[in-house]
């Protein structure tokens, strides 16, 4: 066998091996893991579990398990996903924290741009809600009440980097006022104290507020999106914050799917194709709409556009967080 033939044969074998590797994904019987960098039962966990159900069929009936790796404002679980084998079987489902942690943390154990972006999943509107005994009955009355009680108003959030923390920062800047922020270790204790009247109000995801608003355990004042919400029905009469006088106010909490750096392009494409099928699943859409979430049906479901969107969000949130001077160690 001539040296040239040997070289050509070796190169051809390598190409065939790479092709076989790509075609073999997903391997029959192989289990997928979705890392969620938040506690079980929270909004991101709910999204991930709904998504896992919708992804099973387009991934060949694969078993998909959830790994809740919570802590340090989502950075522990995100770092775990970043260090995972880049074979496509360990993925990350996380929210807007992917874009805000670079400003919130001086040092991160991962680089956001080095993840492989598999596609945006949904957007979750935010709602300004108050304790049930709050005197204000609409947003105009709420802003007047805040002005009258300057220095006495308490605004809850679920902790540094949480959706409620980020929305609260934007709200304070838009209202041009400072309030006493009360951080909690998660949404559940914050909501419990809001319902009990220990704190005055908060701005949180519809995934966290809907059942309490429907049960009249808290008051709802306005939504954070440019357009009014039609679902769930309990929000259909609420004005947007833009309509209520905070022109241009637009905050939503989005979720995306990511793979570790170095995951083969063919594998990322397979994951993206599966995600786009899942995003059209009627059961998935119904579950998300029931939580007030809007399933993505535009170009951001594609890998490249997802990455561009996250980069734009990094640029959007960085100045807001820096202006507030709120950092983690």
Automatic annotation (TrEMBL):
Residues 1-22 form the signal peptide. The keyword GTP-binding does not apply. The keyword Signal applies. Gene3D superfamilies: Bordetella uptake gene, domain 1, Periplasmic binding protein-like II. Keywords: Signal. Belongs to the UPF0065 (bug) family. This is ABC transporter substrate-binding protein. It comes from Ottowia oryzae.
